[in-house]
Amino acid sequence: MARIITFSEAIKEAMQLAMRKDENVILMGEDVAGGAEVDHLQDDEAWGGVMGVTGGLVQEFGRDRVLDTPIAEAGYIGAAVTNAATGMRPVAELMFNDFIGSCLDEVMNQGAKLRYMFGGKAKVPLTIRTMHGAGFRAAAQHSQSLYGMFTAIPGIKVVVPSTPYDAKGLLLAAIEDDDPVVFFEDKTLYNVKGEVPEGYYTIPLGKGEIKLPGNELTIVGIGKQVQTALDAAEQLTAKGIDAEVIDPRSLSPLDESIILDSVMKTGRLVIVDEANPRCNVATDIAALVADKGFDYLDAPIKRVTAPHCPVPFSPALEDIYLPSAEKILKVVSEMIEDDTTVTM
Amino acid sequence: MKVSEETVQGITAEKASWMYQKMCEIRKFEDKVHDLFGQGVLPGFVHLYAGEEAVAVGVCAHLDDNDSITSTHRGHGHCIAKGCELDGMMAELFGKATGLCNGKGGSMHIADVEKGMLGANGIVGGGFPLAAGAALTSKLKKTGAVAVCFFGDGAGNHGTFHEGINLAAIWNLPVVFVAENNGYAEATPFEYASSCTNIADRAKGYNIPGEIVDGKDATAVYAAAQKAVERARNGEGPSLIECKTYRNYGHFEGDAQKYKPDVEKKSHLEELDALRKFREYIASEGLLTDAELDDIEERVDHAVEVAVKFAEESPMPAEEDLTKDVYVSYETHDRGDV
């Protein structure tokens, strides 16, 4: 039987394998080692990141390759850009994706554009690992899902894994990649377990996966919402509706074919994205299918997203902020209520 | 209570009573939050202020509701010192509709604009420009109000430190920047993450006064803040005060704090304790009797219990609150579900 580990362990393992394979790979970020220069912490019990994801790396690779930074995102993310452009292959941890507010210039105006502005004469093999996602009661400044913002920026690649297996293979691919990649880790997935092989493997960026095959309805999920889509699909099966669940895995580049092929087969599309609804990835995918797959559609495209408001703190509100299987079922019933070929 | 005789720091018996009460409110509120979080009652993250009481109280002793403060992710102490009600604070931490922010903000965004408390902040370094902005309002409207920016030693290395303080200095704004140097930014020691020996040393670069005080000593903070607040009110511009302090708990609840040496932790929790020190000062100056001090503690114990009960019994926000207060007004011409 294959080995079962958590999403968090899969990410740490990818970091270990990448750092063993290539000495140019380093990790930097706030407390990614933890307790820098505290004598009694040089060897063990250092934090390993605020959620413990990188715990143990400093013991194996030392403080020269696992660098604690001041709480100064513009400083170290900016430094990581040219650290990458001048021969290293850094992984910089932006603790929460919300903190991009403190360093967007370094990512958007520097890292993303160097290669193009310099006529293709530079490359920026930088990976930014960052936590996202609501459901942790972490309120408005620690819970957003900002992958759509980065997807809109040419020059940056965007990866959002949904399983431990994908997280490991995609992170290794992101680190190998010669372009800047923002790698999103949903903080509520860290303890989710799944089958993960021990060795080094990569999953190509820009290649989605069918997580559940089906014929009557396509549900595209992003990150954690792939699981919400699978939960909905299970309930739909009980109602006699055969749903296919697609995980694009990377949003930039986006595997357009896997989505269009699926809609060609099913004729119906629901996109589940926990980001706010305006200009998000669900909207982008809806536009793609309206543009290139209009003739395949038997029903309007539906998006299940967060509402147009910040992430609330109160559990009572945060629970209804997030997409759910129930919300997916509701839009599906709207999509098929006038369709006599399907009964629900 | 004894006659309100002036001491060297100008701390009257009445002021001492207020300060001791606020310090006790902070300590007992935070100890209670620590217990509740440990029991799994409170959602989310909490970052506790216990141990640093002398800073918030020593500074806010010079402020009224017209003055503004900006706070940090460790904001409960600033709230209490600025006069926020314990009931509304506790309810906010529970995510209840009766909370100071109607349950929308939680611990990291707790605020009370009417009290001049412009919010705890989830973004390290968020407060520097925000305080400068509030001070600009005071300057332009000639209100005489002062803005205080509380920030941690971690924020001292953030880019906003430079931009906010420089702006306040060139515009001669009535701001007091108060560093709460508790020795650790999360788990990272100050000495590792900062190129300076003292945060206050950086004041030189902005041509503003920079003073270092014992942040565990409420009287020392009080005296330094008095000068800086007066200076700001008199139109003489911003100041920087660095308070050397210590947090009794971890960066957040759940932090095992292995980066703190045991000896250091013990001395701060015991002989260097800010409440103990201030109580001793009050007694040595004869400002209040032991009975009066004990009475304050008992009243605060009761107030914290009342706050918890209020929070527990309060309702959760309603579903329609989710999308309320995103804007003041917003006309969507929404067609609803099609």
From TrEMBL, chain A:
Domain Transketolase-like pyrimidine-binding: 5-192
Highest taxon in the source lineage: Bacteria
UniProt keyword terms in alphabetical order: Oxidoreductase, Pyruvate
GO MF, any single term: oxidoreductase activity
Pfam family, one: Transket_pyr
Keyword Oxidoreductase tagged: yes
InterPro entries, alphabetized: THDP-binding (IPR029061), Transketo_C/PFOR_II (IPR009014), Transketolase-like_Pyr-bd (IPR005475), Transketolase_C (IPR033248)
NCBIfam families with a match to the protein in the record: PRK09212.1 (NF006667)
Protein name as annotated: Pyruvate dehydrogenase E1 component beta subunit
Automatic annotation (TrEMBL), chain B:
Keyword field contains Oxidoreductase: yes
One Gene Ontology biological process: pyruvate decarboxylation to acetyl-CoA
Pfam families referenced in this protein's UniProt entry, alphabetically: E1_dh
InterPro entries xref list: DH_E1 (IPR001017), PDH_E1_Alpha_Subunit (IPR050642), THDP-binding (IPR029061)
GO molecular function, one term: pyruvate dehydrogenase (acetyl-transferring) activity
Domain Dehydrogenase E1 component: 22-318
CDD domains linked to this entry: TPP_E1_PDC_ADC_BCADC
Co-factor requirement: thiamine diphosphate
Keywords: Oxidoreductase, Pyruvate, Thiamine pyrophosphate
SUPFAM superfamilies: Thiamin diphosphate-binding fold (THDP-binding)
Protein name as it appears in the record: Pyruvate dehydrogenase E1 component alpha subunit
Species: Salipaludibacillus aurantiacus
